[in-house]
Amino acid sequence: xxxSPLSLCPDTVPKMLxxxxxPPSPSHPIRTLRALRRSRSTRLPPTWPSPYHNKxxxxxxxxxxxxxxxxxxxxxxxxxxxxxxxxxxTGRMARKADEYYxxxxxxxxxxxxxxxxxxxxxENAHRERRVKRPTMGDRRFGSVHVxxxxxxxxxxxxxxxxxxxxxxxxxxxxxxxxxxxKLYPEKKVRQRWI
Length: 194
Description:
By secondary structure, this protein is mainly alpha-helical.
């Protein structure tokens, strides 16, 4: 309480007339955090797909993979090639990503309803056009190499064995061992496994 009613004491001065507090210094942690938040978009390369794509904790020189927007908050592992970084998605970022996906799907649906050819269909059609058609020889023989039989006499020709005989032999041995184990338990026959 002030001594005299006419004197200006801090309790009676309206908040608007009070002197504002001094601004925080440039090295104040709140100011640096705000600067970091503001500069996030400027740190990303110009080829970044959208501001909703996530950058992992690794520096841009190591990993420049644009992780897709995540509509769920949490810590996610970077999907970049040989990258072990992580990225954090806050609740606010998740809501923005969800809205981004809704906008993208809405735009695609409208484009399909209007009959506008989408970019993906054009790319796929372009890829199909570039596929080289097989020649007659490729169609007849496929990718299997046909050996030249004229180099060998019929008796010297090397025949490829499938190895089926070996599989059946092993299966037979396995069955024989099982039968011997049941018939002669005193022999303690050890099974040969397939």
